[in-house]
Amino acid sequence: MNHTSLLDVIGAHSGAGSPKEASAVLAGLTATQKYLPSWLFYDAAGSRLFEEITRLPEYYLTAREHSIFSEHAAAMIVAAAGLEKPRLSVVELGAGSASKTLVLLRELVAAQGQAVYLPVDVSKSALEWASRNVQEALPTVEVRPICAEITQEKLLDLPQEGRRLALYIGSSVGNFDPEEAVGLLRWLRSQLLPGDALLLGTDMAKNTPPLLAAYNDAAGVTAQFNKNVLVRLNRELGANFALDAFEHRAVWNKTEGRMEMHLHSTRSQTVRIDSLDRSFDFKRGESIHTENSYKFTPEGVEDILLRSGYTLEQSWYDADRWFGVHLARVLEAETMVEDEDEEAAA
Ligand code: AVI
Question: Are 264 and 246 in contact (CB under 8 A)?
Fold first, then answer.
C-alpha cells in the first residue's frame, strides 16, 4: 500500500480543491485499505495544529531535537565544515518555525561572521515567517527564501562558493516510506556537491508507551489534527464527513517499524463527495489510514543514507536516545552504492 508517493507530497498543484487533491482522495478512498495522503493535513488549520502538537508534553520529538541542537550545534558546525573550514551556507527543506535552525545559525555566525540561509518551502507564508524570525534574530544572516514545489526535476539555485550544509530535520523523513525517503534524499544529493553535508533528524525506535502517547495526546490535539483532513475535504471537495462518526486511533506497526494514524468509522455509513460525484461506503470499524511515521534504528539511518549517496559521519542523541541528529557527507557519484535491483537492471 503506497500511501504517500514522493510526488504526492512534494509535487505540484496540491492546493484547495485542485485536480491533484481530488485524484489523490479518489485513489485513497477506493483502495481496499482506505487511505488519505498525509500532505492533506497541512492546510492553514492543520499547520497551526501541528505547531500546537510540537509544544505538547507528550510530543517529545521537537523538544528532544531542540535540546540536541542546543547542546551540540557548535560541534555540528565544526564537523560539517571539516578540516578545510570552508564557508558554509545552510539550505533547509521545509521552513518550519526555524527555532531549531536558529540555534545552528547562531553558532554559524559565531564561527564565520556571516552566512547565507536558504529555506525551501511550498508555503509562502511559512517562508515569510521563517525568514522574518531569522532576519530579526540574526541580522548578519542573508536569507534567500526559495518558494518551490520541490520536484525531482526542480533545480535549487544554491550558492556555489564554500560548502553547503543541508538540513532535513523534525523527523519529516519518517513520513515517507523507505523507498520514497531514498528518492527524496537522492534528489537533494543531486542539488549538492561532493563534500557537502546533510543534517538529518530522525525519531528513533523505542518502547511503545511514549510513542502511543506522542500520537494520542491527552488534550486531543493530535485527534483534531487527524480529523482536520475530513474538515478539509468537506470544505474543499464538498464532502459530508460527519466528524463525530470517525475516531482518531494511533497504533504501533511493529513489522514496519512505524506509528500509524487512522480514522475509524464508528458506524456503518455512506459519505458523499460532491466534487468527485461519488459516494463511499464505510463499514463500522473500517479505517482510513492517514499517516505513517517511521522510527529508525542507527543501522536504518546508515542504510538509507548510503542508498541515497551519503556516508554517515556522526550522530548526536538525547540522553535516552529517543531522537537523533545525523551528519552525513555527500559522496562522489562514482562511490555511490547502487540498489541491487538497479544493478540487476544495468
Ligand atoms: C511532521 N511529522 C514529522 C509529524 C510526525 O511525527 O510524523 C507529524 C505528526 N503526526 C502526528 N503528530 C505529528
Answer: yes
pLDDT digits (tens, 9 = 90+) for 12-45: 344 567 888 999 999 999 999 999 999 999 998 9
Distance in Å from the first CA to the final CA of the chain: 27
Q: How far is the CA of 196 from the centre of ligand 1 (A)?
A: 28
Alpha carbon of 194 to ligand 1 centroid (Å): 31
Cell triple for residue 332? 562522489
Any ligand 1 atom below 6 A from CB of 216: no
Span 270-315, pLDDT tens digits = 999 999 999 999 999 999 999 999 999 999 999 999 999 999 999 9
> What is the CA(110)–ligand 1 centre distance, in A?
32
Q: What percent of the chain clears pLDDT 70, i.e. is strictly above it?
A: 89
Give me the amino acid identity at 259.
Answer: M
Burial 58-74, CB ≥16 within 10 A → b, else e:
bbbbbbbbbbbbeebbe
Global confidence as pTM: 0.92
From the CB of 172, is ligand 1 less than 6 Å away? yes
Q: 222 CB under 6 A from ligand 1?
A: yes
- CA trace torsion 102, 297, 172, 323 (10° rounding): -40
Residue 230 CB–ligand 1 contact under 6 Å = no
